[in-house]
Write a structure and sequence with these properties.
single chain; 603 residues; alpha/beta; ABC transporter transmembrane region fold; 6-stranded mixed sheet; 22 helices; 12 strands; 63% helix; disordered N terminus; disordered C terminus
């Protein structure tokens, strides 16, 4: 099942997260300044237009009472208003285009940073977290931040400027009515702050549960055949329903807590409108204001209260954006592999491999390997055997620096591998894992994965040496057959052979075979053993195997139990010792009674 989810970020991280997100817009400040300038022009034109309409109304009223309409001035005012609205639309489009350019540039950089970060994270990070949650941070949360930022930078700046511009015009027309109009602002601000504090935790939980749901979906999709084979569809549906219910409840609480603001804002806006209309009518009757003036003020009042309501309505968008950004930043801030030494680039890596009293343990657990010591000469084949969980794979992961030893050291050619850059170190290894990993692409591209630019002659030679060529040529597309879904339409054994061909072509100095024959039948295993014999020539090889038939010819066999090397030697010397390896051998090749005795002994 999936790993437990990381708890949502606390609400007090709202402002640091929001500030960090806005700080990422620094490289796009020219576009943002242009967007702000276009927004100012848009708001200025929209704020000026009601005043011209009010003046046009006064011209009409004066014409009614005087019996002579000033058509020239009236036409000028109407034309000016029309031009203002046309120009406002143009500036609005410019503002939207510049904002989109800034936000998409920010998202491009953020996705690139995440991609780079994923390559620098230690293997333990992915072991402690569900893949679905990590993918959700890199996809759903990034998309949510992009959509929210695009709307917020467009609407929030515009709303704030509209608020200030309309307030200035209201104060110019009538300070008395302006005072009435702004009475609701402190109350609205207080309400927004209170709701923001309550809703932030709900939005953080919503996106955490989204990551959990994605983790379950990823698990079900990757294991759908096993789920069906064991008839656990109902159980899988139940687990999905539980996760879906948690997400629905978290999202409902988040949307409800933030959504309560806008209706209250609308209510206060309407009450404000009534108060302005009543007092304004009394002002007109008293002769303190003209009809055009009160008309313009009412329009400005609407322009003033509308941004207040919009800002309240954007509260849920802001909270959701910051919650997602907090999850993305948590991934970007996760601990990385230890720093590379500055002067390690020229360090040679080929040669003798030595483990010197190496101990390694996962956080908060007992050591996976303890006091491991052995040496391997160039060209030798080392087999590592033992029961499941004995620490076999951990040894080769330490060698490739996927893990760092807690104590002791590992050397290659006399140099501590901690002084060799990971990328350069791993260039020495050709790897075949138990799980045959193939990417979406042609068979030709998958074989050449470890050696980009390899010629067709080299690719075919590697395929022939590993018995891949015979089944590839039987496919309709041959080497141009496109693989999907991790290797369809190949069988599991054919996929494993393909990864062996990839290792053959790579020509790396050190070969690591982690249960490389576990997914093939006995006949194919025999063919692979013959191919491996040629493949290992001139290379240092580490072979991890449960089937002892694959390691009999190894130069050195390491027998591991509970993280320790309990025996080491050749096949014959270990059998002669009649100890752990001999019992393990008898468990596989003796009669059923002997196997039962070995199992009872804990082998």
């Amino acid at each position: 099942m999936t790993a437990p989810l990381v708890a949502p970020a606390p609400a007090e991280r709202f402002w640091p997260t929001a500030g960090r997100l806005l700080g990422l817009l620094q490289p796009f400040r020219r576009f943002m300044l242009g967007a702000v300038a276009a927004t100012c022009a848009f708001v200025g034109l929209n704020v000026a237009a009601p005043k011209y309409l009010g003046d046009a109304t006064d011209v009409v009223v004066d014409g009614v009472f005087s019996g002579a309409l000033d058509q020239g001035r009236f036409g000028f005012l109407l034309a000016a208003v029309a031009l203002m609205y046309v120009l406002a639309s143009v500036f609005n489009w410019v503002q939207g285009a510049l904002t989109a350019r800034s936000v998409q540039g920010l998202m491009y950089g953020l996705r690139a940073s995440l991609e780079d970060k994923l390559h620098r994270l230690p293997s333990t990070y992915f072991q402690e977290r569900s893949r679905g949650d990590v993918l959700s941070r890199a996809t759903n949360d990034i998309d949510n931040v992009a959509q929210a930022m695009n709307q917020l930078l467009t609407q929030l700046i515009m709303s704030l400027l509209m608020l200030c511009g309309s307030l200035a015009m209201m104060l110019w027309i009538s300070p008395l009515l302006a005072g009435i109009a702004i009475v609701t602002v402190p109350l609205s601000t207080l309400l927004t702050v209170v709701v923001a504090r309550r809703s932030q935790a709900h939005f953080a939980r919503q996106w955490t549960e989204t990551g959990g749901l994605n983790a379950h979906v990823e698990e079900f999709v990757s294991g759908h055949e096993v789920i069906k084979a064991f008839g656990h569809q109902a159980k899988a549906a139940e687990v999905f329903a539980q996760s879906n219910d948690k997400l629905a409840r978290a999202a409902t609480k988040a949307q409800y807590s933030a959504g309560v603001v806008q209706p209250l804002m609308v209510l206060m806006s309407n009450l404000n409108y009534i108060a302005v209309a009543v007092v304004g009518a009394l002002q007109v009757i008293a002769g303190a204001m003209t009809i055009g003036g009160i008309q313009a003020f009412v329009q400005f009042s609407r322009l003033f209260t509308q941004p207040v309501g919009q800002i309240g309505g954007m509260l849920n968008l802001i909270q959701s954006c910051v919650a997602s950004a907090s999850r993305v930043f948590a991934l970007l801030d996760a601990g990385e592999d230890s720093a590379e030494p500055a002067a390690a680039g020229s360090t040679p890596v080929a040669g003798r491999i030595v483990f010197e009293d190496v101990t390694f343990g996962y956080p908060e657990s007992a050591p996976a390997v303890r006091n491991i010591s052995f040496s391997v000469e160039p060209g030798q084949t080392v087999a590592i055997v033992g029961h499941t969980g004995a620490g076999k794979t951990t040894v080769v992961n330490l060698l490739m620096r996927f893990y760092e030893p807690g104590s002791g050291r590992i050397t290659m050619g006399g140099t501590d591998i901690a002084q060799i850059p990971r990328d350069r170190l791993r260039e020495q290894f050709g790897v075949v894992l138990q799980d045959a990993w193939l990417f979406a692409g042609t068979i030709r591209e998958n074989i050449a994965y470890g050696r980009p630019g390899a010629t067709d002659t080299c690719i075919i030679a590697a395929a022939e040496a590993t018995y891949v060529d015979r089944f590839v040529r039987a496919l309709p597309g041959g080497y141009d057959t496109v693989l999907e879904n991790g290797g369809e339409p190949l069988s599991q054994g054919q996929r494993q052979l393909l990864t062996i061909a990839r290792a053959q072509l790579s020509g790396r100095a050190v070969l690591i075979l982690d249960e490389a024959t576990s997914s093939v039948d006995s006949r194919t295993e025999l063919l692979i053993r013959q191919a491996m014999q040629r493949l290992r020539q001139g290379r240092t090889s580490f072979v991890i195997a449960h089937r002892l038939s694959t390691v009999r010819n190894a130069d050195l066999i390491l027998v591991m139990d509970h993280g320790r090397i309990v025996e080491q030697g050749t096949h014959l010397t270990l059998l002669a010792a009649n100890s752990y390896y001999a019992r393990l051998h008898n468990a596989q090749f003796s009669d059923p009674a002997g196997q039962a005795d070995a199992l009872e002994a804990g082998i």
